[in-house]
Known about the structure:
Layout: H1 10-32, H2 35-51, H3 61-78, H4 97-116, H5 119-129, H6 135-142, H7 146-174
Amino acid sequence: MGPPPSRRGEDWFTATYAAHYAPIVKYGLRRLGDTDASVELAQEVFVVAWRRRAEVPDYSLPWLYGVARRLLANRRRADRNRPVHVPLLSHDAGNDQHAAEGAAVELAVVRTAIAALSDKDQEILRLVGWEELSVVEAATVLGCTRTTAAVRLHRARRRLTAAMTSAAPATRIASPAVIPS
């Protein structure tokens, strides 16, 4: 446990920053696709954490993700016309050409399926899948109960599976990687 909220000073902030800066930057990078923008987001998150340090819980990462999520929502509302690029996987599929082609097809299936989901479904899947949060931690980020988050996750997974099933045949037919030569 950290110091009581009334006694949180520079040492507390420095330790929190050191422990959680990289995960917050990665959170932004996965959602924005731009290193500079994700670093700027992390800076904004920690400005909020400093100003509201009395409200930050001892295990602060889910709380910081929630701040980042709300900052991103504010940014999207302010600039609706700017497209957001979200890379889902790295492009390092190995040296095997067939593995690379198969990975490209699967990536296309996943991207198509994720794009078909609602923003709420995408967010709960990203929190649990990419950020590796527990359902309780994801609930903290989303500002809902554990039960609500668990139900959202279950439904989002079910919808993702359905979307991948419907997207897979069309993507595979259109992809030259699976057409026999």
